[in-house]
Amino acid sequence: MMHEEQQLFMAEMADVKPLKSAESHFFVKAPQDEAAQKARREAADIDERLLALSVDTVNLKRVKGDEIVSFAREGVQEAVLKTLRLGRYEAKTRFDFRGLSLSEARKTLLELIDGALFRGERNLLLVCGKGLGNKPFEAVMKSALTTWLSQLEVVRAFHSATREEGGSGALYVMLIKSEAEKIHSRETNRRGARR
């Protein structure tokens, strides 16, 4: 019986040719797998950035509640910083950090920046308050935000807001240009040079 089965099998397989061995194998991923992987990468990225921004008050550069603060990375033109200082850039993203813990504020800051960059926005208005009665020292939230903002590469500059929008208790923040904005600026400048 075994011999007959083997002969039958061999007869059925007579015209079958073996596949050529290939070095590479192709696997198709389900879209859900890619989305899950992207979500895990983004979560890991946020976790890494959170760890880089300390919530330990010992590591914060202390500023006074009524102090006017200003920061600009190398390459930010003085005219751009002046326009930022005067509040002439539209800030669609605005958020009040008063009442948040430093851990909540740090996470919220990264989410606000990521959201603004995703939408192609370059400017934010962040209300930190003056924190005149804060413990362990004055202006804890303001000190935290200015320390963190100066550590984030996507932040080009920040300055205390105008009196109408919070004065020394609020910050105008300018982010980097998106790739689309950089291309648009180059094209605009190139067209202007031809005229």
What report would you give on this structure?
This is Smr/MutS family protein. Residues 95-176 form the Smr domain. It comes from Shewanella jiangmenensis. This protein has 195 residues and is an alpha+beta fold. It has a domain at 63-183: 2-Layer Sandwich (Ribosomal Protein S8, Chain: A, domain 1), CATH 3.30.1370.110. Helix content is 45%, strand content 12%. The protein has helices at 2-12, 31-52, 78-85, 102-119, 140-151, 179-194; strands spanning 70-72, 93-96, 123-127, 155-160, 170-175. A five-stranded mixed sheet has the order 1-4-5-3-2, sandwiched between helices. Helix 4 links the parallel strand 2 and strand 3 (123-127). It is elongated. The model has no long low-confidence stretch (mean pLDDT 86).
Quick gist of this model?
It comes from Shewanella jiangmenensis. The protein is α+β, with helices and mostly antiparallel strands and about 200 residues long. The protein is built from 6 helices and 5 strands, in the order ααβαβαβαββα.
Provide the descriptors you would attach to this structure in a database record.
single chain; 195 residues; alpha+beta; Ribosomal Protein S8, Chain: A, domain 1; Smr/MutS family protein; Smr_dom; Smr_dom_sf
Strand segment tally: 5
Q: Count helical runs.
A: 6
The helicity comes to 40-55%
Structural class: alpha+beta
Q: What about the largest sheet?
A: 5 strands, mixed
Question: What CATH architecture of one domain do you see?
Answer: 2-Layer Sandwich
* Cross-sheet strand order for the largest sheet: 1-4-5-3-2
Distance between the termini: 92 Å
Pfam families: Smr
Protein name: Smr/MutS family protein
Organism: Shewanella jiangmenensis
